[in-house]
Amino acid sequence: MKSILLSSRIFMMIVFTLFYACTKESSDKISLSPPNQTIQKSDSIIPLGCIRGYFGDEYKSFTDHIEKVAAIDSFSNCYYYGYCNNTLKQITLIRCDSTYVIALYIMGISPESLPVEPPVPDYCKYAEIQFYKFQDWNSVSNGHYSLDNFYGRNVFITNSKDDVLTGTFEGDLISPDSSRIHVSKGEFNIKVFRKYMPCGKSNGK
Questions:
Q1: Among 8, 165, 166, 170, which residue's Cα sits nearest to residue 81?
Q2: How far apart are CA 55 and CA 32, in angstroms?
Q3: Which of 52, 34, 41, 97 is nearest to 189 (CA)?
Q4: pTM
Q5: pLDDT digits (tens, 9 = 90+) for 22-40
Q6: Which pLDDT score, from 0 to 100, does residue 30 have?
Q7: Would you list the domain boundaries of the chain?
């Protein structure tokens, strides 16, 4: 599962390194609202291009791309496909605000095969949730929270009409120092663009 994500993570590492090359901001552990200061969920229909949910007791909504480019050129909403030694099928959904990044990676599933009714077969179908501050983009940072599991257990896509993916996510995300943050009532509504990647070479299609 980790090898499938390698090329995307290397690209993101380059982007974040350039973006923060001149910053002196120190990396802090994620500190959201205390239990007695809960920020409540909005009852509105989730807008297109949004990932939102409870992160701890705080309800957060993310709508910005990591990079400031046209949606079709962004790696924040892509379905990567191709063949090089094995078949590549990876859905990447990333959004951010001025401080935090939420990233969902779904491997082994193509948009045209969705939605897949539960229970979902475990074999070669995985999902990963990541949540971190911008300066904690490196997965070894103690402020970088993540959860890896089989697809369908913590991340589930309920609709994929016209490559607009809607679905839900939840679970306990863990940092390298074993700190935890509980994510609940997560949902997303994002249109993905298809990127053909034979042996690591990409062409938008």
A1: 8
A2: 8
A3: 52
A4: 0.78
A5: 333 444 566 665 444 455 5
A6: 66
A7: 2-21+42-204
